[in-house]
Amino acid sequence: MQLLVSVSNPQEARVTLAGGADVVDAKDPRRGALGAVTRPRLRAICETVGAQRPVSAALGDATQPGRVGRAVQAAADTGVTYVKVGFRGIGSALRVRHLAAAAGAVAGVRLILVAYADWDRADGPRPAVVLDVAEAVGASGVLMDTAFKGTGLFHLIKRDAVQGWVTAARGAGLLAALAGGLEGSDLTIAREVGADIVGVRGAACDGGRMGSVSGVRVAALSALIRRAPLAHAGARV
What is the pLDDT of residues 158-204, one digit of tens each? Predict the structure, then answer.
């Protein structure tokens, strides 16, 4: 399992690299769960990381096909490896598919579709719907996250259900990632259920998710996930 750390600027990217994270994720925590950084800042983060690690970019929640396609293209032009797109406020599975297809039409970048564990509160699609759409449109992977911060992923969805969703994603050939208030033993659970990537922000910061990334914290998290036991099977969300 790999560790993804969300950073909001090039300085945090440097700290994250020094701490040993596997993926550097560009995100503005002030703008929500998938808050996008500005294009100049994304480019600066990519330039800081260079070829040392993959860079992912949070692009917010899709609302219009043309808009999400342009956002993905702009991110791809900066050199990111992954883009993350959510569907908060989109209850129709058909509309989710149209938006995902528009995002996936951009070449040269790997698309990660985001499912929210608190999908009902976010008025979004169920995690199983996002997984099905990801497979249908040829996305590279899926991420289960939380739209609203304050309650962790495993407090919203039972471990066995998360494990089933991860198993189904990997069975479909999709990269499976987990995030959403994860820290400490949550990272061990994430690896046990078979996640390919675990994403953090608050656990890597001094002062919570609105604070600053700490190299010491990143190094500790990196060591923790590498000590965790491996996965076993479960049921689908």
Answer: 999 999 999 999 999 999 999 999 998 999 999 999 999 999 999 99
φ, ψ of residue 123 to 5 degrees: the values are 55, 40
Q: Cα-flanking dihedrals φ and ψ of residue 6, to 5°?
A: -85, 130
CB 77 within 8 A of CB 59: no
Burial level of 100, CB count in 10 A (0-12/13-18/19+)?
Answer: buried
What does the alpha-carbon distance between residue 175 and residue 178 come to, in Å, rounded to a whole number? Answer: 10
Q: What is the average pLDDT score of the chain? A: 94
CATH architecture designation of domain 2-227: Alpha-Beta Barrel (3.20)
CB 154 within 8 A of CB 189: yes
Q: What are phi and psi of 220, to 5 degrees?
A: -65, -40
Residue 158 falls in the annotated catalytic set: no
The packing angle between helices 159-171 and 127-137, to 10°, is 10
Is 27 catalytic? The answer is yes
Residue type, 39: R
In the structure, what pLDDT confidence band is assigned to residue 236 with cuts at 50, 70 and 90? very low
Query: Is the separation of the CB atoms in 42 and 25 below 8 Å?
Result: no
Helix/strand/coil for 26: strand
Out of 6, 27, 86, 142, pick the active-site residue: 27
Catalytic residue among 43, 53, 84, 88: 84
